[in-house]
Amino acid sequence: MQTTFSATAHAIALVALSTGIACVQVGARAPDEVAAKLEDRLETRVGVFVLDTGTGETWEHRADERFPMASTFKSFACSALLDKAAKGSLALDDTVAVEVSDLVTYSPVTEKRVGSRLSLREACEATLRTSDNTAANIVLEALGGPQAVTDFMRSIGDDATRLDRYETALNEARPGDARDTTTPRAAAESLRTLLLDDGLGASDRQLLGNWMRSNEVAGPLLRAGIPDTWIAADRSGAGGFGTRGVTAVLWPPEHAPFVVAAYLTGREIPMESRNEALAEIGRAVAGLVE
């Protein structure tokens, strides 16, 4: 709920600013309030879960409703691969032949590797840095299929997230279809487990974080709304019916990290509008510490 400041409160805020005391921006909206406003403006469904890992405080809007993951599944798939490698079931240096018949839409890395071999390490890097869809399918094949991602998520305590199809069918995002979906709460809590807690071993956690921090395709989303001094490890996605999503760990200077999952879906709207909506959520998160 937006706060209405009295004249006295406004004066106190001005004094705080003049004396260098940090405070939330006057008139700034919390992430859950922003999500509700975006729903009204865009006439689509918006889900948000934001966790301040320092205080445990959360901001939630439709946090337990299902949303299509689209490419946000990729951080979970690569986490499952890292876990499987750590257990000795495969090696990141194992290679796979890349054939023309393997290529699916949007494969900027693998389309240049047709006729050669790609290591599983390279496949995950391409998946998380560029969102290469063929590379993501290579990861899924190495795991044994989409169900392996669902099984991995259950093993880390996530009872909601499920993956059912390969790229690019999983981006269909038809309303009411539970396939290839998660909830904002589940996605955020799982990302926290993987990047900040003990869902992966220390070296694998660092590798996953490095891949996600080097994401080249999420600039217009949360990153567009946070200061340049913040560090972001994120994974974005887009699909049918106006679907857009992003999951992230955000590190502000001198503040505990925030974990964010934000999704929108329901009707076709321009990609620019979807991106700006997620940037607005990023600005709301930044406003929590400014």
From TrEMBL:
GO terms for biological process: beta-lactam antibiotic catabolic process; response to antibiotic. It catalyses: a beta-lactam + H2O = a substituted beta-amino acid. Its EC number is 3.5.2.6. Residues 47-263 form the Beta-lactamase class A catalytic domain. One of its GO terms (molecular function) is beta-lactamase activity. Gene3D superfamilies: DD-peptidase/beta-lactamase superfamily. It holds the Pfam family Beta-lactamase2. Belongs to the class-A beta-lactamase family. NCBIfam families: bla_class_A. This is beta-lactamase. It comes from Fulvimarina pelagi HTCC2506.
